[in-house]
Amino acid sequence: MAEEQHAATEEFERRPVPDSALKGPGKFWGMYSGEHAAGTEFMIGPLFLLSGVALKDVFLGLFVGNLLAVLSWRYLCAPIAVRARMTLYYQLEKIAGGNLVKLYNLANGVLFCFLAGAMITVSATAVGIPFNIEMPTIDSVYPNNAAFVVIVLLVGAVIALVAAKGYDLVARFANVASPWMVLVFLGCGLVALKQIGAADWEGLNKVWNASITTAQGGEAKSTMGFWSIALFAWFCNSAMHIGMADLSVFRYARKASSGWAAAGGMYVGHYMAWIAAAFMLAAQIQATGDANPVPGPMAANVAGLAGIVCVVVAGWTTANPTIYRAGLAFQAMIPNSSRTTMTLVAGAVATIAGVFPAFAWKLLGFVGFYGTVLAPMGAVIVADWYFSKKAGFQQFAAEHKGSGFNISVALAWLIPVAVATYFIKFAPEGDRIDSWFCILPCWIATAILHVIFSKIFHKTA
Amino acid sequence: MKKLLPFIALAGLVLTIAPPLIHLFGDLPVKTTFHLMTAGMVLWFAAATPWLGRRKLEPTDTEVQI
């Protein structure tokens, strides 16, 4: 059964999508609007508040950043998708070779495990409420009590087992849950606004600033400004738009204008839901002085049982396809391995990561790093698609030469990523750069290097 | 009964979002708001699962979005 389900997702994996399978724009609006109200949204909004971002920068930065994200889907990803009608993996394989695609896929899988881990933590904070367990605090790198560890292990085990059975059940459940989750996010924001008790913008701003001061123990230091918010919002899904992973989605679109559908996801999930979640934390801080952005209790405070269930469902429906995809990536790396076993391995890694709440608290930096590593491969596709003829190098070089590992693509990808990783993770404290600032430079550098290296290694006659 | 499912599901969505709106702009008590939202959740899942859950999955349904 599970293998049959997997076969269903492999439809048109290695050939262009035929006209008979194309879909109208409505399908994409529905998909994006629902899928971006996910477990991550419960963490991201509150983390903006804890970073001391001014309220107007949240509203304006998210508006601008999400607009840039939509434009990236519409004018970079969708046009290539509707002309090539191939998945990211198949198109990349033609350029980079199968073995390099496996390496990219492995990086994707490993990063997905940690993202799923953060989502298991999110779900566990809601599952633990009826048992009255002590929740981790924002300072906790390690779990602070055994009961929380047990809850995380149980939640992770259930999610991993369901993922190992196949994507079908949870994908169906996610489709059912998504319209309801969107409205619960909105409802949470409305009740939080009432609890904040502000009558106008000035009042709201005052409560917001007071919440930052309380959260930072009397200080009011901002580590993120307008451009941080705008760039984070733009590149939160960079692996999908400028990174071209959503070629797999838009290859089914009749026209590139279906790319506008991403606006549904951005302004519902990454605008309304992030702001609603941030207000949930502001309301909690105002009511109790507790600045820990623990999704379960925050949602329970503003939506009761519906909020608790929403946190569990949001975390679960995000973690499940993530573990499933990571399992497929691991399976591709190990010949003759079973997908079920590899999915359970991915689930085990994610569950162990979920035990450490620091992965959830550091979600902003992690999401930026995820984009820094994966999005530059989209630059390879864009440069290959638009510049191969003009610059005089072989398009789809690996396919043309029958190569499994295109060294020019590997260098164009890994050199900028290695430099960025140094500045994000390993540079002296004062020289470090927030990960969301590295994505665009990395993407541009990869595109330029791909053209230069391809002209050296794959020059056309 | 099958034809009623979309209407019941829609009622569940209304019960999910209307109470927070009335709570914010009116004087619906917070406890009542929570109870009504819970009722909305039960109605939605009870009706939407047999209504939407049987739809054919699209290949795009396994894509991961953050």
Task: Explain this structure.
The complex is a heterodimer of chains A (461) and B (66). Chain A has 461 residues and is an all-alpha fold. Chain A contains 20 helices and no strands. In chain A, helix 5 (88-96) packs antiparallel against helix 6 (98-127). Chain A is globular. The N and C termini of chain A lie far apart (50 Å). The model of chain A is unreliable at 1-8 (pLDDT under 50). Chain B is mainly alpha-helical. Chain B has helices at 5-25, 30-52. The chains are: A mainly alpha (461), B mainly alpha (66). Chains A and B meet through helix 2, helix 8 and helix 13 of A and helix 1 and helix 2 of B.
Broad structural category of chain B: mainly alpha
In the predicted model, the low-confidence regions of chain B spanning at least 5 consecutive residues are: none
- State the low-pLDDT regions of chain A, or none: 1-8
Strand share of the residues of chain B?
Answer: under 5%
Question: Rg of chain A, please?
Answer: 22 Å
What key attributes describe this structure?
heterodimer, A: 461 residues, Hydantoin permease, 20 helices, disordered N terminus, B: 66 residues, mainly alpha, 2 helices, 0% strand
What's this model, at a glance?
Chain A is mostly helical and 461 residues long. Chain A contains 20 helices and no strands.
Write the layout of secondary structure elements.
The complex is a heterodimer of chains A (461) and B (66).
Chain A: H1 2-9, H2 25-35, H3 39-50, H4 55-84, H5 88-96, H6 98-127, H7 146-165, H8 168-196, H9 201-215, H10 226-235, H11 247-250, H12 262-288, H13 295-333, H14 339-355, H15 358-361, H16 363-374, H17 376-391, H18 397-401, H19 407-426, H20 439-457
Chain B: H1 5-25, H2 30-52
